[in-house]
Amino acid sequence: MVAGLLFFVLPVLLASCSLLPAGPMPQKQHGPAKAMIEGVPFFAQEEFQCGPASLAMALNWSGTALQPADLIAEVYTPGLKGSLQSAMVSSARRHGRVAYPITGSEALLAEISAGHPVIVLVNLSFSWYPKWHYAVVIGYDQQQGRVILHSGRNAGEVLSSRVFMNIWQRSEYWGLLVLPPDRLPAGGREKEWLAAVAGLEKSRQWQAAAIGYATALKKWGKSFAAWMGFGNSSYRLHELDASAKAFYQAALLQPDNGMAFNNLAHVLAEQGKSKDALAAAQRAVDLGGPSIDTFRRTLEDITQNICATK
Amino acid sequence: MLKLAMKPVSFFLVFSFALLNFNVHRVQAQMVDTHTVIAEQEAADKRARVADFLAREEVKEIMIKQGIDTVEAQKRLASLSDAELTKIAESMNHLPAGGDGLGTLVGAAVFIFVVLLITDILGYTHVFSFVKHQR
Protein backbone atom coordinates (compact mmCIF):
# COMPACT_ATOMS: atom_id res chain seq x y z
CA MET A 1 0.00 0.00 0.00
CA VAL A 2 2.80 2.37 0.89
CA ALA A 3 4.53 1.83 -2.43
CA GLY A 4 1.26 2.29 -4.24
CA LEU A 5 0.64 5.60 -2.55
CA LEU A 6 4.10 6.76 -3.41
CA PHE A 7 3.36 6.48 -7.07
CA PHE A 8 0.21 8.50 -6.80
CA VAL A 9 2.00 11.21 -4.91
CA LEU A 10 4.75 11.43 -7.48
CA PRO A 11 3.93 13.98 -10.15
CA VAL A 12 2.32 12.26 -13.10
CA LEU A 13 5.15 12.12 -15.53
CA LEU A 14 4.86 10.95 -19.05
CA ALA A 15 7.31 9.73 -21.58
CA SER A 16 6.53 10.72 -25.09
CA CYS A 17 9.80 9.27 -26.28
CA SER A 18 11.84 11.42 -28.51
CA LEU A 19 15.35 10.35 -29.41
CA LEU A 20 18.23 11.49 -27.27
CA PRO A 21 20.46 14.35 -28.36
CA ALA A 22 24.17 13.61 -28.39
CA GLY A 23 26.17 15.68 -25.91
CA PRO A 24 29.84 16.15 -24.97
CA MET A 25 31.56 17.04 -21.65
CA PRO A 26 32.80 14.62 -19.01
CA GLN A 27 32.27 14.66 -15.23
CA LYS A 28 33.40 12.63 -12.23
CA GLN A 29 31.59 10.83 -9.40
CA HIS A 30 32.00 8.30 -6.57
CA GLY A 31 31.85 4.47 -6.59
CA PRO A 32 33.74 2.00 -8.80
CA ALA A 33 35.51 3.59 -11.77
CA LYS A 34 33.50 1.93 -14.50
CA ALA A 35 31.08 -0.85 -15.22
CA MET A 36 29.26 -2.31 -18.17
CA ILE A 37 26.46 -4.88 -18.12
CA GLU A 38 26.76 -7.35 -20.96
CA GLY A 39 23.80 -9.16 -22.40
CA VAL A 40 21.03 -6.61 -21.96
CA PRO A 41 19.01 -7.15 -25.16
CA PHE A 42 18.13 -4.09 -27.18
CA PHE A 43 14.74 -3.31 -28.72
CA ALA A 44 14.55 -0.30 -31.01
CA GLN A 45 11.48 1.68 -30.06
CA GLU A 46 8.57 2.55 -32.32
CA GLU A 47 7.23 6.10 -32.14
CA PHE A 48 6.15 7.01 -28.57
CA GLN A 49 6.90 3.45 -27.43
CA CYS A 50 9.96 3.97 -25.26
CA GLY A 51 8.04 2.67 -22.22
CA PRO A 52 7.29 -0.80 -23.61
CA ALA A 53 10.71 -0.97 -25.28
CA SER A 54 12.64 -0.09 -22.11
CA LEU A 55 10.56 -2.40 -19.98
CA ALA A 56 11.01 -5.24 -22.48
CA MET A 57 14.79 -4.83 -22.30
CA ALA A 58 14.79 -4.98 -18.51
CA LEU A 59 12.34 -7.88 -18.43
CA ASN A 60 14.37 -9.88 -20.95
CA TRP A 61 17.52 -9.26 -18.97
CA SER A 62 15.68 -10.60 -15.90
CA GLY A 63 14.87 -13.81 -17.74
CA THR A 64 11.44 -13.38 -19.32
CA ALA A 65 11.02 -13.63 -23.08
CA LEU A 66 8.77 -10.70 -23.93
CA GLN A 67 8.65 -8.38 -26.91
CA PRO A 68 7.82 -4.68 -26.58
CA ALA A 69 4.62 -5.38 -28.53
CA ASP A 70 3.50 -7.76 -25.76
CA LEU A 71 3.70 -4.94 -23.25
CA ILE A 72 1.98 -2.11 -25.12
CA ALA A 73 -1.49 -2.91 -23.79
CA GLU A 74 -0.19 -3.03 -20.20
CA VAL A 75 2.04 0.00 -20.27
CA TYR A 76 1.14 2.46 -23.00
CA THR A 77 -1.66 5.03 -22.68
CA PRO A 78 -2.64 6.06 -26.22
CA GLY A 79 -4.48 9.22 -25.10
CA LEU A 80 -1.30 10.47 -23.43
CA LYS A 81 1.04 9.20 -26.14
CA GLY A 82 3.24 7.81 -23.42
CA SER A 83 3.64 5.44 -20.51
CA LEU A 84 3.07 6.26 -16.86
CA GLN A 85 5.60 5.22 -14.25
CA SER A 86 2.92 3.42 -12.26
CA ALA A 87 2.04 1.39 -15.36
CA MET A 88 5.68 0.38 -15.79
CA VAL A 89 5.77 -0.80 -12.18
CA SER A 90 2.55 -2.78 -12.34
CA SER A 91 3.45 -4.37 -15.66
CA ALA A 92 6.77 -5.61 -14.30
CA ARG A 93 4.88 -7.13 -11.36
CA ARG A 94 2.37 -8.83 -13.61
CA HIS A 95 5.28 -10.70 -15.13
CA GLY A 96 6.50 -11.85 -11.74
CA ARG A 97 9.34 -9.39 -11.42
CA VAL A 98 10.12 -7.15 -8.48
CA ALA A 99 9.77 -3.50 -9.47
CA TYR A 100 12.13 -1.61 -7.18
CA PRO A 101 12.33 2.18 -7.60
CA ILE A 102 15.64 3.89 -6.97
CA THR A 103 16.69 7.51 -7.04
CA GLY A 104 19.93 9.43 -7.47
CA SER A 105 23.29 8.82 -9.07
CA GLU A 106 24.86 6.99 -6.16
CA ALA A 107 22.16 4.31 -6.26
CA LEU A 108 22.39 4.18 -10.05
CA LEU A 109 26.13 3.52 -10.06
CA ALA A 110 25.81 0.93 -7.29
CA GLU A 111 23.18 -1.01 -9.21
CA ILE A 112 25.01 -0.83 -12.54
CA SER A 113 28.22 -2.10 -10.97
CA ALA A 114 26.20 -4.91 -9.37
CA GLY A 115 25.05 -5.85 -12.87
CA HIS A 116 21.50 -4.57 -12.67
CA PRO A 117 20.29 -2.46 -15.61
CA VAL A 118 18.24 0.55 -14.55
CA ILE A 119 15.27 2.04 -16.39
CA VAL A 120 15.48 5.82 -16.08
CA LEU A 121 12.97 8.53 -16.82
CA VAL A 122 14.54 11.60 -18.40
CA ASN A 123 13.24 14.86 -19.78
CA LEU A 124 15.02 15.65 -23.01
CA SER A 125 13.68 19.18 -23.10
CA PHE A 126 12.88 21.88 -20.55
CA SER A 127 10.38 21.61 -17.72
CA TRP A 128 8.00 24.02 -19.47
CA TYR A 129 8.07 21.97 -22.68
CA PRO A 130 8.67 18.43 -21.48
CA LYS A 131 9.74 15.59 -23.71
CA TRP A 132 9.72 12.65 -21.36
CA HIS A 133 11.61 9.57 -22.34
CA TYR A 134 12.48 6.18 -20.85
CA ALA A 135 15.88 4.60 -21.45
CA VAL A 136 17.87 1.75 -19.92
CA VAL A 137 21.24 2.54 -18.36
CA ILE A 138 23.64 -0.36 -18.92
CA GLY A 139 27.02 1.09 -18.08
CA TYR A 140 29.17 4.04 -17.08
CA ASP A 141 32.74 5.22 -17.09
CA GLN A 142 33.61 7.80 -14.47
CA GLN A 143 37.07 8.66 -15.79
CA GLN A 144 35.68 9.46 -19.21
CA GLY A 145 32.52 10.93 -17.68
CA ARG A 146 30.18 8.76 -19.66
CA VAL A 147 26.91 6.96 -19.24
CA ILE A 148 25.96 4.16 -21.60
CA LEU A 149 22.32 3.47 -22.36
CA HIS A 150 19.96 1.63 -24.64
CA SER A 151 17.75 4.46 -25.74
CA GLY A 152 15.29 5.05 -28.53
CA ARG A 153 16.82 3.58 -31.68
CA ASN A 154 20.38 3.54 -30.36
CA ALA A 155 21.85 0.49 -28.70
CA GLY A 156 24.64 1.33 -26.27
CA GLU A 157 24.40 5.07 -26.82
CA VAL A 158 27.17 6.97 -25.05
CA LEU A 159 26.15 10.15 -23.27
CA SER A 160 28.26 12.55 -21.22
CA SER A 161 27.50 12.31 -17.51
CA ARG A 162 26.82 16.02 -17.38
CA VAL A 163 24.12 15.87 -20.03
CA PHE A 164 22.69 12.70 -18.54
CA MET A 165 22.46 14.20 -15.05
CA ASN A 166 20.79 17.29 -16.49
CA ILE A 167 18.05 15.41 -18.28
CA TRP A 168 17.64 12.86 -15.46
CA GLN A 169 17.42 15.53 -12.77
CA ARG A 170 14.10 16.72 -14.27
CA SER A 171 12.37 13.51 -13.19
CA GLU A 172 13.92 13.91 -9.73
CA TYR A 173 16.29 11.09 -10.69
CA TRP A 174 13.62 8.44 -11.07
CA GLY A 175 14.97 4.98 -11.78
CA LEU A 176 13.44 1.54 -11.77
CA LEU A 177 14.99 -1.89 -11.25
CA VAL A 178 13.23 -4.92 -12.69
CA LEU A 179 14.64 -7.86 -10.78
CA PRO A 180 14.00 -11.59 -10.54
CA PRO A 181 12.49 -12.14 -7.08
CA ASP A 182 15.58 -14.03 -5.87
CA ARG A 183 17.93 -11.12 -6.53
CA LEU A 184 18.28 -8.29 -4.06
CA PRO A 185 19.27 -4.82 -5.26
CA ALA A 186 22.83 -3.70 -4.43
CA GLY A 187 21.46 -0.98 -2.17
CA GLY A 188 18.58 -3.17 -1.07
CA ARG A 189 16.91 -2.06 2.11
CA GLU A 190 14.54 -4.26 4.04
CA LYS A 191 11.48 -2.01 4.07
CA GLU A 192 11.73 -1.03 0.43
CA TRP A 193 12.31 -4.60 -0.73
CA LEU A 194 9.36 -5.92 1.26
CA ALA A 195 7.11 -3.16 -0.06
CA ALA A 196 8.17 -4.03 -3.61
CA VAL A 197 7.56 -7.75 -3.02
CA ALA A 198 4.19 -7.03 -1.44
CA GLY A 199 3.32 -5.41 -4.77
CA LEU A 200 3.69 -8.86 -6.34
CA GLU A 201 0.97 -10.12 -4.03
CA LYS A 202 -1.32 -7.36 -5.29
CA SER A 203 -0.72 -8.70 -8.81
CA ARG A 204 -1.52 -12.20 -7.54
CA GLN A 205 1.99 -13.41 -8.35
CA TRP A 206 2.11 -15.65 -5.31
CA GLN A 207 5.02 -17.81 -6.41
CA ALA A 208 7.22 -14.83 -7.21
CA ALA A 209 6.16 -13.15 -3.96
CA ALA A 210 7.05 -16.25 -1.94
CA ILE A 211 10.51 -16.30 -3.54
CA GLY A 212 10.88 -12.57 -2.86
CA TYR A 213 10.10 -13.04 0.83
CA ALA A 214 12.36 -16.08 1.09
CA THR A 215 15.15 -13.99 -0.44
CA ALA A 216 14.50 -11.28 2.13
CA LEU A 217 14.65 -13.84 4.94
CA LYS A 218 18.10 -15.01 3.85
CA LYS A 219 19.39 -11.52 4.62
CA TRP A 220 16.93 -10.31 7.25
CA GLY A 221 16.01 -13.48 9.09
CA LYS A 222 14.35 -11.59 11.91
CA SER A 223 12.00 -9.59 9.75
CA PHE A 224 8.45 -10.01 11.06
CA ALA A 225 6.93 -8.60 7.86
CA ALA A 226 8.98 -10.96 5.68
CA TRP A 227 7.79 -14.01 7.63
CA MET A 228 4.21 -12.74 7.43
CA GLY A 229 4.53 -12.17 3.70
CA PHE A 230 6.04 -15.61 3.20
CA GLY A 231 3.21 -17.13 5.21
CA ASN A 232 0.59 -15.25 3.23
CA SER A 233 1.96 -16.14 -0.19
CA SER A 234 2.55 -19.78 0.79
CA TYR A 235 -1.07 -19.92 1.95
CA ARG A 236 -2.20 -18.68 -1.45
CA LEU A 237 -0.08 -21.40 -3.04
CA HIS A 238 -1.84 -23.96 -0.79
CA GLU A 239 1.45 -24.80 0.86
CA LEU A 240 -0.14 -24.97 4.28
CA ASP A 241 2.79 -26.49 6.17
CA ALA A 242 5.20 -23.83 4.99
CA SER A 243 2.61 -21.18 5.68
CA ALA A 244 1.96 -22.36 9.24
CA LYS A 245 5.68 -22.56 9.91
CA ALA A 246 6.17 -18.99 8.71
CA PHE A 247 3.39 -17.65 10.93
CA TYR A 248 4.89 -19.54 13.88
CA GLN A 249 8.21 -17.81 13.20
CA ALA A 250 6.49 -14.45 13.00
CA ALA A 251 4.66 -15.13 16.26
CA LEU A 252 7.96 -16.02 17.94
CA LEU A 253 9.51 -12.78 16.76
CA GLN A 254 6.62 -10.64 17.96
CA PRO A 255 4.65 -12.61 20.56
CA ASP A 256 2.61 -9.51 21.42
CA ASN A 257 1.41 -8.99 17.88
CA GLY A 258 -1.95 -10.54 17.06
CA MET A 259 -1.49 -10.54 13.29
CA ALA A 260 0.67 -13.64 13.19
CA PHE A 261 -1.76 -15.57 15.44
CA ASN A 262 -4.73 -14.47 13.37
CA ASN A 263 -3.25 -15.76 10.14
CA LEU A 264 -1.92 -18.87 11.81
CA ALA A 265 -5.45 -19.62 13.03
CA HIS A 266 -6.75 -19.73 9.46
CA VAL A 267 -4.02 -22.08 8.30
CA LEU A 268 -4.51 -24.39 11.28
CA ALA A 269 -8.26 -24.42 10.68
CA GLU A 270 -7.70 -25.44 7.10
CA GLN A 271 -5.34 -28.16 8.20
CA GLY A 272 -8.16 -29.50 10.36
CA LYS A 273 -6.43 -28.65 13.62
CA SER A 274 -9.49 -26.93 15.00
CA LYS A 275 -8.42 -26.89 18.63
CA ASP A 276 -5.11 -25.18 17.88
CA ALA A 277 -6.85 -22.87 15.42
CA LEU A 278 -9.30 -21.77 18.07
CA ALA A 279 -6.50 -21.15 20.56
CA ALA A 280 -4.55 -19.05 18.04
CA ALA A 281 -7.63 -17.03 17.08
CA GLN A 282 -8.44 -16.41 20.72
CA ARG A 283 -4.85 -15.34 21.34
CA ALA A 284 -5.07 -12.78 18.54
CA VAL A 285 -8.26 -11.31 19.98
CA ASP A 286 -6.72 -11.16 23.45
CA LEU A 287 -3.67 -9.32 22.11
CA GLY A 288 -5.83 -6.81 20.22
CA GLY A 289 -4.26 -3.96 18.29
CA PRO A 290 -5.28 -2.01 15.20
CA SER A 291 -6.56 -5.13 13.40
CA ILE A 292 -8.78 -6.28 16.27
CA ASP A 293 -11.91 -6.34 14.09
CA THR A 294 -10.28 -8.79 11.74
CA PHE A 295 -9.21 -10.93 14.69
CA ARG A 296 -12.77 -11.02 16.03
CA ARG A 297 -14.15 -12.12 12.67
CA THR A 298 -11.54 -14.84 12.48
CA LEU A 299 -12.52 -16.13 15.90
CA GLU A 300 -16.19 -16.01 14.93
CA ASP A 301 -15.56 -17.88 11.66
CA ILE A 302 -13.52 -20.59 13.32
CA THR A 303 -15.96 -21.04 16.20
CA GLN A 304 -18.82 -21.39 13.72
CA ASN A 305 -16.95 -23.87 11.58
CA ILE A 306 -16.19 -26.05 14.55
CA CYS A 307 -19.83 -26.02 15.62
CA ALA A 308 -20.90 -26.80 12.04
CA THR A 309 -18.68 -29.86 11.77
CA LYS A 310 -19.65 -31.26 15.15
CA MET B 1 -37.21 7.02 -34.32
CA LEU B 2 -35.04 7.49 -31.30
CA LYS B 3 -38.07 8.16 -29.11
CA LEU B 4 -39.70 4.99 -30.35
CA ALA B 5 -36.70 2.89 -29.45
CA MET B 6 -36.32 4.54 -26.03
CA LYS B 7 -39.04 2.66 -24.24
CA PRO B 8 -38.14 -0.94 -25.14
CA VAL B 9 -34.46 -0.19 -24.65
CA SER B 10 -34.99 1.23 -21.17
CA PHE B 11 -37.25 -1.67 -20.24
CA PHE B 12 -34.59 -4.04 -21.39
CA LEU B 13 -31.95 -2.21 -19.37
CA VAL B 14 -34.03 -2.08 -16.22
CA PHE B 15 -34.78 -5.75 -16.56
CA SER B 16 -31.19 -6.74 -17.12
CA PHE B 17 -30.02 -4.71 -14.12
CA ALA B 18 -32.57 -6.51 -12.02
CA LEU B 19 -30.91 -9.76 -13.03
CA LEU B 20 -27.49 -8.63 -11.84
CA ASN B 21 -26.37 -10.18 -8.63
CA PHE B 22 -25.49 -7.46 -6.16
CA ASN B 23 -24.92 -9.83 -3.30
CA VAL B 24 -21.56 -9.16 -1.78
CA HIS B 25 -20.00 -12.43 -0.84
CA ARG B 26 -18.79 -12.56 2.69
CA VAL B 27 -15.04 -12.51 2.67
CA GLN B 28 -14.01 -15.95 3.77
CA ALA B 29 -10.48 -15.83 4.96
CA GLN B 30 -9.87 -12.91 7.30
CA MET B 31 -6.13 -13.05 6.86
CA VAL B 32 -4.19 -9.90 7.55
CA ASP B 33 -2.53 -9.14 4.21
CA THR B 34 1.11 -8.21 3.93
CA HIS B 35 0.41 -4.59 3.01
CA THR B 36 -1.41 -4.15 6.30
CA VAL B 37 1.43 -5.85 8.16
CA ILE B 38 3.98 -3.49 6.61
CA ALA B 39 1.85 -0.42 7.33
CA GLU B 40 1.32 -1.41 10.95
CA GLN B 41 5.00 -2.16 11.45
CA GLU B 42 5.85 1.28 10.13
CA ALA B 43 3.37 2.92 12.46
CA ALA B 44 4.83 0.98 15.39
CA ASP B 45 8.36 2.08 14.42
CA LYS B 46 7.28 5.69 14.33
CA ARG B 47 5.57 5.42 17.71
CA ALA B 48 8.73 3.93 19.20
CA ARG B 49 10.87 6.70 17.73
CA VAL B 50 8.64 9.41 19.16
CA ALA B 51 8.54 7.63 22.54
CA ASP B 52 12.36 7.48 22.56
CA PHE B 53 12.48 11.16 21.75
CA LEU B 54 10.12 12.05 24.58
CA ALA B 55 12.26 9.99 26.95
CA ARG B 56 15.37 12.09 26.20
CA GLU B 57 16.55 14.15 29.17
CA GLU B 58 16.64 17.48 27.36
CA VAL B 59 13.10 16.94 26.07
CA LYS B 60 11.85 16.00 29.52
CA GLU B 61 13.46 19.15 30.88
CA ILE B 62 11.58 21.37 28.45
CA MET B 63 8.33 19.60 29.17
CA ILE B 64 8.71 19.79 32.92
CA LYS B 65 9.42 23.52 32.59
CA GLN B 66 6.09 23.82 30.84
CA GLY B 67 4.43 21.90 33.65
CA ILE B 68 3.82 18.79 31.61
CA ASP B 69 3.66 15.39 33.28
CA THR B 70 6.07 13.32 31.21
CA VAL B 71 4.57 9.99 32.23
CA GLU B 72 1.14 11.17 31.17
CA ALA B 73 2.63 12.46 27.90
CA GLN B 74 3.93 8.96 27.09
CA LYS B 75 0.46 7.59 27.76
CA ARG B 76 -1.18 10.13 25.47
CA LEU B 77 1.26 9.09 22.78
CA ALA B 78 -0.43 5.71 22.60
CA SER B 79 -3.66 7.25 21.38
CA LEU B 80 -2.16 9.23 18.49
CA SER B 81 -3.37 8.48 14.98
CA ASP B 82 -1.07 7.34 12.18
CA ALA B 83 -1.31 10.74 10.49
CA GLU B 84 -0.25 12.55 13.66
CA LEU B 85 2.64 10.16 14.19
CA THR B 86 3.75 10.62 10.60
CA LYS B 87 3.78 14.39 11.07
CA ILE B 88 5.99 14.09 14.14
CA ALA B 89 8.29 11.49 12.63
CA GLU B 90 8.75 13.64 9.53
CA SER B 91 9.68 16.69 11.56
CA MET B 92 12.12 14.54 13.55
CA ASN B 93 13.92 13.69 10.32
CA HIS B 94 15.13 17.28 10.23
CA LEU B 95 16.88 16.92 13.55
CA PRO B 96 20.65 16.91 13.03
CA ALA B 97 22.32 13.72 14.18
CA GLY B 98 25.54 15.30 15.40
CA GLY B 99 26.22 18.89 16.39
CA ASP B 100 28.79 20.94 14.51
CA GLY B 101 29.19 24.71 14.90
CA LEU B 102 26.34 25.92 12.72
CA GLY B 103 24.32 22.75 13.11
CA THR B 104 23.77 23.20 16.85
CA LEU B 105 22.16 26.58 16.32
CA VAL B 106 19.81 25.39 13.59
CA GLY B 107 19.41 22.17 15.52
CA ALA B 108 18.23 23.91 18.67
CA ALA B 109 15.47 25.70 16.76
CA VAL B 110 14.35 22.52 15.05
CA PHE B 111 14.55 20.72 18.35
CA ILE B 112 12.19 23.16 20.08
CA PHE B 113 9.92 23.00 17.07
CA VAL B 114 9.65 19.22 17.32
CA VAL B 115 8.99 19.32 21.05
CA LEU B 116 6.29 21.96 20.63
CA LEU B 117 4.77 20.06 17.72
CA ILE B 118 4.50 16.98 19.91
CA THR B 119 3.08 18.85 22.89
CA ASP B 120 0.61 20.55 20.54
CA ILE B 121 -0.56 17.28 19.09
CA LEU B 122 -0.76 15.78 22.54
CA GLY B 123 -3.00 18.65 23.54
CA TYR B 124 -0.74 20.39 26.09
CA THR B 125 0.03 23.52 24.09
CA HIS B 126 -1.52 25.40 21.21
CA VAL B 127 1.36 26.98 19.37
CA PHE B 128 0.68 25.90 15.80
CA SER B 129 -2.60 26.71 14.14
CA PHE B 130 -2.19 23.81 11.69
CA VAL B 131 -2.46 21.23 14.46
CA LYS B 132 -6.10 20.26 14.77
CA HIS B 133 -7.10 19.07 18.20
CA GLN B 134 -9.25 16.00 18.34
CA ARG B 135 -10.07 16.22 21.99
Structural class estimated from helices and strands of chain A: alpha+beta
Radius of gyration of chain A: 23 Å
Largest sheet of chain B: none
Low-confidence stretches of chain A: 1-13, 19-29
The end-to-end distance of chain B, rounded to whole angstroms, is 63 Å
| Computed Rg of chain B | 26 Å
Structural features:
heterodimer, A: 310 residues, Cathepsin B, Chain A, Serine Threonine Protein Phosphatase 5, Tetratricopeptide repeat, 7-stranded antiparallel sheet, disordered N terminus, B: mainly alpha, 6 helices
Summarize the structure.
The complex is a heterodimer of chains A (about 300) and B (about 140). Chain A is built from 13 helices and ten strands. By secondary structure, chain A is an alpha+beta fold.
Layout: helices, strands, pairs:
The complex is a heterodimer of chains A (310) and B (135).
Chain A: H1 2-9, E1 14-15, E2 34-36, H2 50-61, H3 68-75, E3 76-77, E4 82-84, H4 85-94, E5 98-103, H5 105-113, E6 118-123, E7 132-141, E8 146-151, E9 154-160, H6 161-169, E10 174-179, H7 190-202, H8 206-219, H9 224-236, H10 240-253, H11 258-270, H12 274-287, H13 292-309
Helix pairs in contact in A: 2-3, 7-8, 8-9, 9-10, 9-11, 10-11, 11-12, 11-13, 12-13
Chain B: H1 2-19, H2 34-54, H3 57-65, H4 70-77, H5 82-92, H6 101-121
Helix pairs in contact in B: 2-4, 2-5, 5-6
